[in-house]
UniProtKB/TrEMBL annotation:
It comes from the Bacteria. Transmembrane segments: none annotated. It comes from Planobispora siamensis. Gene3D superfamilies: 3.30.70.260. This is Amino acid-binding protein. PROSITE patterns: ACT (PS51671). Residues 4-77 form the ACT domain. InterPro entries: ACT-like_dom_sf (IPR045865), ACT_dom (IPR002912).
Length: 210
């Protein structure tokens, strides 16, 4: 089973190697490591691993708890293929058909940041402009999540939000009265590194579309 593990551990020499050794002793094959954060004496890294069998998130957490100072922030299945460049593929498709730039971004951006789905909303009235095919059917008629005010989903700056089972990311589209909202139900809240990545790609998309 291919999993993404988000772990926080003391940022000291040899700590990353210790995490890798423990994963190896548990039979996990590390496919990719992404550094998300290095500050305040701790590191936050994402590991994509091939884990034997189909373990539950709690099982993985328990097995990793042997490492002193380790905090497992999230364990969830991943669609990411290590070694690929989905950012470049997205931008290539946008450049090939600029008239569909934002629709293409909404369709493809979930794979950039491990979101399950994305929608584009009008910043003014929250009207649903476009949705990725994975978006659920419990979106209300105005395009927002049931029980959530549109104003909460369309802040002036990129933001991480939460609503019920959803972990949300909201990105205002530069130069357009649009917001892109991404969501996932598995895994931790979006990290600021994920917000920065999606937002930088969106800035390029908006330049191509203008």
């Amino acid at each position: 089973m291919i999993l993404r593990l988000r772990v926080s551990f003391p940022d000291r020499p040899g700590a990353l190697g210790q995490v890798a050794r423990v994963l190896g002793t548990l039979g996990a094959d590390i496919l990719q490591v992404t550094v998300l954060e290095r500050e305040t004496g701790r590191a936050v890294d994402d590991f994509i691993v091939s884990w034997p069998g189909t373990p539950s998130a709690e099982t993985v957490r328990d097995r990793l708890s042997v490492i002193p100072g380790m905090r497992v922030e999230g364990v969830w299945p991943t669609r990411e293929t290590p070694g690929t460049a989905p950012d470049y593929d997205l931008l290539r498709h946008v450049a090939a058909e600029p008239s569909r730039a934002y629709a293409t971004f909404v369709d493809a951006v979930p794979d950039l940041v491990e979101a399950e789905w994305a929608v584009a909303l009008s910043s003014g009235d929250g009207h649903l402009v476009h949705r990725s095919w994975q978006a659920p059917q419990d979106l209300d008629e105005s395009g927002g999540l049931v029980g959530v005010k549109i104003g909460d989903l369309t802040p002036l700056r990129p933001a991480v939000l939460a609503s019920g089972p959803y972990r949300l990311m909201s990105l205002p589209v530069p130069g357009a009265s649009l917001h892109v909202v991404l969501a996932r139900t598995e895994g931790p809240p979006f990290h600021r590194a994920e917000v920065d990545r999606a937002n930088r790609v969106l800035e390029i998309v908006s330049t191509i579309a203008s």
